[in-house]
Amino acid sequence: MNHQTIDDRNTALTIEDFAALRENLHEQRLFRREQLQQLSAEANAVPERQGAAHIEVRVRLAATARMVLTDVEAALDRMDQGRYGACHLCRGPIARERLMIVPQARYCARCQQVREAYR
Ligand SMILES: [Zn+2]
């Protein structure tokens, strides 16, 4: 009985966990959608008065928002399809505590590290 293994075993999500994660994902989706709307509204407002630096910041913010939104929507799809919480690379379970911090995570901590190392 090795219930002390660190990363992958203690991953079972309870129904309450799922509800909390789903709510978190919904909130993030709403937030990112509003952010994107706001950014595009800003982009349309008097563009000639906006400096290049300002535009660059906005473009970066929008790119991040779009990326997170894509991840969040994919995570919600996975929830609906009952595939939530499995790593896309190794197919192993993603640790519960990781999902609690990053509900839209596609990879377990190990695979994420590998991906970042090769970026
Ligand atoms: Zn993995």
From TrEMBL:
GO terms for molecular function: zinc ion binding. The keyword Zinc-finger applies. It comes from the Bacteria. Keywords: Metal-binding, Zinc, Zinc-finger. This is Zinc finger DksA/TraR C4-type domain-containing protein. It holds the Pfam family zf-dskA_traR. SUPFAM superfamilies: Glucocorticoid receptor-like (DNA-binding domain). The keyword Transport does not apply. A zinc finger (dksA C4-type) spans 87-111. It comes from Streptomyces pseudovenezuelae. Residues 82-116 form the Zinc finger DksA/TraR C4-type domain.
